[in-house]
Structures are given as structure tokens and as C-alpha cells.
């Protein structure tokens, strides 16, 4: 059975090539469904994908009939599952997604996966220890709302300026 987890990532976007990047999943956080993704949950899946040259699909709102781009990089680090890809503006929904992200109307990422190995903890939460990742979608309502798409730009230099602004905001909050 395919399951989905939603997350709002810190990501950058620029159009044509429409590059986006960020965390599609963050380890250790309880989502609205009571699940927690454990560090290492994606390792086996990513290794299998790399070995066979496979890919994880980029979809619009989890609709398998609406691919909107390609994920060029997926990696697991200490924080979570980081993704980087390109929205395809030659596809109607890809162009629409780029415009919505650019306007700030859409800022969520969500994963579609099959649970391979999970366990309940003493607090009623399901801890996902291993998942088979099928897709990462751009979505309106993420299940894990702790991060958002931040930098939105047609020009890579604008994305850099947005990143500097975010860094300044973080410094003023510290």
C-alpha cells in the first residue's frame, strides 16, 4: 500500500530549469498522522535506486498521471531526506507549479512511499525505520509543516539574495 508523508522544505526555486531543492522529510519529527521517520529510513531504497539507475518521481499533488519534473538528486543526511530537482515548464502542471511556488501560494513537499519496516513506540507513534520511496510531490497541504519553500526566483542571483535574507532572519531570532 502506498503511503504519503507531507513536509514543507526550505528550498530554492528558479524558473526555466525551475530548480527546487529542500528537505522532503525531516527525521525525528512527529507528523500530523502520528508517524516519525527515523534516521536511515531511506538508505536502503536510495542505494537500490542508485544501483539500478532508477529514480523517484516528481508529481503534482501525488497524482501519478501528472508528473511535473525530475528529481536530479536525493540524499539522506543527518537532518532528513534532501531533494533537488527541476520543474518542467514545458508541462502545463510544471509551469503552474512554478508560478504557484513563485507567488508563495504553494510551498509543501510530500513523500509517497511503502513502509518496509516500522515499530510503535510507547507513546502510540509509528516509527518508520525503512521505507521504499516512490515519489516526492509538490503539495498544498503538507503533513509535516515545519519547513517551507523559501527562495523563489527566476534568476539564480535572486535565489542567493533570498538565502541571505533567510540567514539574516535566523541571526535576528538567535
Give the oligomer, counting copies of the same chain as homo and different chains as hetero: single chain
Overall radius of gyration = 16 Å
Shape: globular
Determine the CATH topology.
Answer: Serine Protease, Human Cytomegalovirus Protease, Chain A
Write the H/E string, N to C.
Answer: EEEEHEEEHEEEH
Strand residue content: 35-45%
Helix content: 10-25%
CATH class: Alpha Beta
In the CATH classification, which architecture applies?
Answer: Alpha-Beta Barrel
Low-pLDDT parts are: 10-16, 150-167
What is this entry, summarized?
The protein has helices spanning 43-52, 92-103, 156-173; strands at 3-7, 11-14, 19-26, 35-37, 57-60, 63-76, 80-87, 108-120, 126-139, 149-153. With 174 residues, it is of the alpha/beta class. The N and C termini lie far apart (43 Å).
Can you put this structure into words, describing what you see?
With 174 residues, this protein is an alpha/beta fold. It has a single domain (3-173), classed as Alpha-Beta Barrel (Serine Protease, Human Cytomegalovirus Protease, Chain A), CATH 3.20.16. 23% of the residues lie in helices and 45% in strands. The chain has three helices and ten strands; from the N terminus they run ββββαβββαβββα. The chain has helices spanning 43-52, 92-103, 156-173; strands at residues 3-7, 11-14, 19-26, 35-37, 57-60, 63-76, 80-87, 108-120, 126-139, 149-153. Strands 1, 2, 3, 4, 5, 6, 7, 8, 9 and 10 form a ten-stranded mixed sheet that branches. The relative contact order is 0.27. Residues 10-16 and 150-167 have low confidence and may be disordered.
